[in-house]
Each structure stands twice: as structure tokens, then as C-alpha cells.
């Protein structure tokens, strides 16, 4: 069963130019079913929640036979966290609770899913 994802982000003030703030938005199940939906980004791209960091967060839910691809910048890192079920990330078998840190990769392929829910973070280190 695919459930809506509700994102709430809070952050502390980094400088006098950025006052503390929080954002909350609910994404419909269809938006992340069989796809990686951008849910947080520094520029609120594609209707995502704004975060004041050089990071993007994607959420997706995948049933058997569904897959997704994400283009990555090899100079950045990607972190894949499996919240439910199982999935393969670039050929690595991951189950609920597993995570994968990737660096130097130009893309992410999620496939061989079994009732899975996944978060993917695109990060600058």
C-alpha cells in the first residue's frame, strides 16, 4: 500500500540573513508511486519543500516490476535509505533499514523492488 508522504523540515538560523523557518507539504501517493519524487531542494524545484542547504531529497515507492533512474553528479554523493521492503540500488541488494552511500557515480538505478519505500539524498560534501 502506498501512503502519502508528509515532509516537514526545520532548520536553525545559519546567519542573520536566514531566519529560522519550517515548511510542511504533503505529496500524494501517485506522485511517488514507481518514481523518485523530488520532495526537498534549495530552490523549491518541482513543487518541493525549500531547504537552505546544497541538498536534494527524493522519495519513491516501488512494487515488483517498477524501477527508476536518477542522474547524479559524480562530484557529489548520494545516500539511499530503504524505509520499507527491498530494492536493488545500482546492483546492490538492500532491505528495510539498509542504506547505501554512493560517490563518483553518474547515475542511480533502483530496480528489483518488492513493496519498497525509498529516500534518496543528493548531497555536496
Globally, the shape reads globular
Helix share, percent: under 10%
Q: What CATH architecture label applies?
A: Sandwich
CATH topology annotation: Jelly Rolls
How much of the polypeptide forms β-strand, as a percent range? over 45%
Give the total of beta strands.
10
* SSE class: mainly beta
Main sheet: strands, sense, barrel = 8 strands, mixed
Name the CATH superfamily classification. Answer: Jelly Rolls
Which blocks of ≥5 consecutive residues have pLDDT under 50? 1-15
How are helices and strands ordered from N to C? EEHEEEEEEEE
What is the overall pLDDT average? 87
Rg, please? 15 Å
Number of helices, counting only DSSP H or I runs of 4 residues or more: 1
Task: State the gist of this model.
With 125 residues, the chain is mainly β. Helix content is 3%, strand content 58%.
Topology:
Elements: E1 5-11, E2 21-27, H1 29-32, E3 37-41, E4 49-50, E5 55-62, E6 68-71, E7 77-89, E8 92-95, E9 99-103, E10 107-123
Parallel strand pairs: 3-4
Antiparallel strand pairs: 1-2, 3-5, 5-10, 6-10, 7-8, 7-9, 7-10
Amino acid at each position: 500500500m502506498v501512503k502519502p508522504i508528509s515532509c516537514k523540515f526545520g532548520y536553525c538560523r545559519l546567519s542573520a540573513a536566514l531566519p529560522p523557518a519550517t515548511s510542511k507539504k504533503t505529496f500524494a501517493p501517485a506522485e511517488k508511486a514507481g518514481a523518485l519524487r523530488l520532495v526537498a531542494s534549495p530552490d523549491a524545484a518541482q513543487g518541493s519543500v525549500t531547504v537552505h542547504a546544497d541538498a536534494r531529497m527524493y522519495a519513491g515507492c516501488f512494487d515488483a516490476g517498477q524501477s527508476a533512474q536518477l542522474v547524479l553528479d559524480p562530484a557529489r554523493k548520494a545516500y539511499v535509505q530503504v524505509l520499507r521492503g527491498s530494492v536493488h540500488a545500482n546492483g546492490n541488494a538492500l532491505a528495510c533499514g539498509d542504506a547505501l552511500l554512493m560517490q563518483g557515480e553518474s547515475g542511480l538505478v533502483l530496480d528489483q523492488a518488492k513493496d519498497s519505500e525509498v529516500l534518496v539524498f543528493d548531497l555536496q560534501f
